[in-house]
Amino acid sequence: MVKNADEYFMKLAISEAKKAEEKCEVPIGAVVVLNGEVIATAHNLRESTQNAITHAEILAIQKACERIGSWRLEDAELYVTLEPCPMCSGAIILSRIKKVIFGAHDPKAGCAGTLMNLLDDQRFNHQCEVVSGVLENECSVLLRDFFRNIRKRNKAEKEKRKINESNN
């Protein structure tokens, strides 16, 4: 096992997030680990697929289930660069993932401790351990820079349209 496994696997999730960014997707990456081995990786594809459920976590869980031939990921750990949303938290619970390790908190949709913690809610028949803030700065910067660049691009396009309209 790697000396600092959480950081090692989170760096792999960050690499996945960067793949998403290259596709103009929100840079979120996920890695599923079973017994110290990566069994699935994925990144956001929502814009590419125009499908609301193609979040990194959902795709990684799907790949992991296919890899082991079972929907039960009872001993698996999920590393993700951004705190899971309600949908992804539901998939995590239903797939019986043992532990979730995430980087950046999500103040708008985080359901692993920020807005609520669905993953540790005793009303469900499964709970999973949550570790937050692993390589938080790196994960946060990736997201912050991505959205900053989108805002800059949108502003430049808006100014360009204004100039074109005034010239016509």
TrEMBL record:
<dbReference type="InterPro" id="IPR002125">
    <property type="entry name" value="CMP_dCMP_dom"/>
</dbReference>
<dbReference type="InterPro" id="IPR058535">
    <property type="entry name" value="MafB19-deam"/>
</dbReference>
<protein>
    <recommendedName>
        <fullName>tRNA-specific adenosine deaminase</fullName>
        <ecNumber>3.5.4.33</ecNumber>
    </recommendedName>
</protein>
<dbReference type="InterPro" id="IPR028883">
    <property type="entry name" value="tRNA_aden_deaminase"/>
</dbReference>
<feature type="active site" description="Proton donor">
    <location>
        <position position="57"/>
    </location>
</feature>
<feature type="binding site">
    <location>
        <position position="55"/>
    </location>
    <ligand>
        <name>Zn(2+)</name>
    </ligand>
</feature>
<dbReference type="GO" id="GO:0008270">
    <property type="term" value="F:zinc ion binding"/>
</dbReference>
<keyword id="KW-0378">Hydrolase</keyword>
<dbReference type="InterPro" id="IPR016193">
    <property type="entry name" value="Cytidine_deaminase-like"/>
</dbReference>
<comment type="similarity">
    <text>Belongs to the cytidine and deoxycytidylate deaminase family. ADAT2 subfamily.</text>
</comment>
<keyword id="KW-0862">Zinc</keyword>
<comment type="subunit">
    <text>Homodimer.</text>
</comment>
<feature type="binding site">
    <location>
        <position position="88"/>
    </location>
    <ligand>
        <name>Zn(2+)</name>
    </ligand>
</feature>
<dbReference type="Pfam" id="PF14437">
    <property type="entry name" value="MafB19-deam"/>
</dbReference>
<keyword id="KW-0479">Metal-binding</keyword>
<dbReference type="GO" id="GO:0002100">
    <property type="term" value="P:tRNA wobble adenosine to inosine editing"/>
</dbReference>
<feature type="binding site">
    <location>
        <position position="85"/>
    </location>
    <ligand>
        <name>Zn(2+)</name>
    </ligand>
</feature>
<feature type="domain" description="CMP/dCMP-type deaminase">
    <location>
        <begin position="4"/>
        <end position="122"/>
    </location>
</feature>
<keyword id="KW-0819">tRNA processing</keyword>
<dbReference type="GO" id="GO:0052717">
    <property type="term" value="F:tRNA-specific adenosine-34 deaminase activity"/>
</dbReference>
<dbReference type="InterPro" id="IPR016192">
    <property type="entry name" value="APOBEC/CMP_deaminase_Zn-bd"/>
</dbReference>
<comment type="function">
    <text>Catalyzes the deamination of adenosine to inosine at the wobble position 34 of tRNA(Arg2).</text>
</comment>
